[in-house]
Structure formats: C-alpha cells, structure tokens
Amino acid sequence: SILENSIENDSKLPSSIKNILNNPRLKGIHNIIYKLIEMDEKYINAIETSLGASGNFLVVDNEKSASICIEYLKENKLGRATFFPLNIIKAKTIDYETKSKINDADGFIGTAKELVKYDSTYENIIANQLGNIIVVDNLDNANKIGKTIGYKYRIVTLDGDIIHSGGSLTGGSKKTSNSILKDKEELSDTLKRIEKLDSDIENS
Question: How far apart are CA 204 and CA 200, in angstroms?
Fold first, then answer.
C-alpha cells in the first residue's frame, strides 16, 4: 500500500511537476518519462543513470500545452519544469558505422533505448533520450569500447558508471536510489511475493 500510494501520489516528484499532473484543467499532459517506460530490474541503474534528471521531464502534446503549463507555474509561483512536446522532439541514434564496430565487442549489451519497453506514441521522445547511449556490462569493457569509437557517444555500465562523449568518466558508489523506477520494480516484486504466499497458504 505504501509503495502504491507513493507511485500513485507522485510523492517523489518535484512539486512543480506534481502540481501539473494533478491539475485536471491542464490539457495535453501525458506523464513524466520515468512513468512511460518499463524494463528488467537488471537495467534500472543503467537507465536511471542514462536519463538522470530528464526522467522527470513532462511529455506533452505540443508546444502550446507546454506554454500553458509554464504560464500556470509562473502565475502561481510553483517552480520550474521541463517539457518534451511530442510534435517537436526528434529521435537520436548511433550511426551505422559505430554500431557495426561495437556489435560484437565484449560486454556490449545494446543501446539504452533497446532495453526499455514503451508505447510507440513515445518513440521519438525515448529515442531522443536513450537512442544514442551505449550500455555495457562493466567499466573495463566500457573503456575498451570508448577507445574503439573514439569516445563519440556516452557509455553507461550496469552499475551506473559513465564514460561521457569526449572521454571524461563519472562513477563511484551510488547512494541508495529512491526513484520511481525502483519503486515500480519493488511493487511488482512485492505483488508477486504476495501472490505466491496466498497460493502457498491455499495449498497448505
């Protein structure tokens, strides 16, 4: 119940975004990017790292929807938010030559976009944010792939370490995540455990 309430009530979102999502008079609002994607648990760190703060960007129908929301935030002094209009945002990809160089490389898993499920409505938004990020199993292999492609694209490991395009690195121990993605995964696991326990009780 706690997890369901947390997800339902957007308790981990900035108040500006919460206010927009909870205002029925604002039209053309879809959701934040984090809530539009699903993935296997093993990819959560990589996807969370790939998206970062942009996971909380709001997807809207068009620039008019975004403008109305921005006016609403200004008038009510509710803070700031970033909007992705569906009719404007363009997809990003990894070029064919680079992809062919890394397809068989040790540790290469795929692009971040390939590791998430989403409704086709959001194809360009997800491709814009995750289409040109390479996901690799660990930092050693990430370094090798980085050298192979001349640090042309961002590379993220399953632990959430990053080799940025250009070659700089970010990594270390991660604080315990309290993100929506982790909550959704925990809720799914908990519901499965409850189902199994119910079944065990019935059969005992």
Answer: 6
Size of the chain, expressed as the number of residues it contains:
204
Residues 31 and 180: their CA atoms lie apart, in Å, by 13
Q: Which residue has the higher pLDDT, 130 or 5?
A: 130
Nearest Cα residue to 46 out of 188, 145, 177: 177
For the stretch 82-107, pLDDT in tens is 999 999 999 999 999 999 999 999 99
Strand 29-32 to strand 162-163: parallel, antiparallel, or no bridges (unpaired)? unpaired
Burial of 25 (C-beta count, 10 Å sphere; 0-12/13-18/19+) = exposed
Q: What is the pTM of this model?
A: 0.81
Question: Residue 109: what are its φ and ψ, rounded to 5°?
Answer: -105, -45
Largest CA distance in the chain: 61
Q: Is pLDDT above 80 for 58?
A: yes
159, 137 in Cβ contact below 8 A?
no
Would you state the pLDDT for residue 176? 53
Contact between residue 135 and residue 156 where contact means Cβ atoms under 8 Å apart: yes
